[in-house]
Specification:
alpha+beta; about 110 residues; globular; about 25% helix; five-stranded antiparallel sheet; 5 strands; about 25% strand
Length: about 110
């Protein structure tokens, strides 16, 4: 099953007018981080990415988005030369429960 098609199964989703709220994670090599952030700036909706530099050899960029926006995110990244496999989406409640989504103090 593709993560880009419908809500992530197995949980009660947080729903909005654009579908379920998901946590989008993008794995990127550190030298390409700036290019990724530049690409994300061209999305038609605002994001506030969390950047995790301690995610192994790659840097992890995470942000919430609604399910309806996933094809737009994927298409933009593929257009900008980032592989589709670098992007994953997890139901937001699952992400919070697992500790994957870490709130940052402002």
């Amino acid at each position: 099953m593709s993560v880009w098609s419908t809500a992530v199964p197995g949980t009660l989703p947080l729903l909005g007018t654009e579908g379920a709220l998901v946590s989008v994670s993008i794995s990127v090599e550190p030298p390409r981080l700036e290019a990724l952030l530049d690409a994300l700036a061209h999305l038609d909706f605002p994001i506030n990415p969390q950047i995790c530099h301690d995610a192994g050899p790659a840097t992890l960029v995470e942000f919430p988005a609604y399910e309806k926006r996933l094809p737009e995110i994927r298409g933009l990244l593929e257009t900008c030369g980032f592989p589709a496999k670098s992007v994953t989406a997890t139901a937001m409640l699952d992400s919070i429960r697992s500790g994957q989504w870490r709130a940052t103090a402002g």
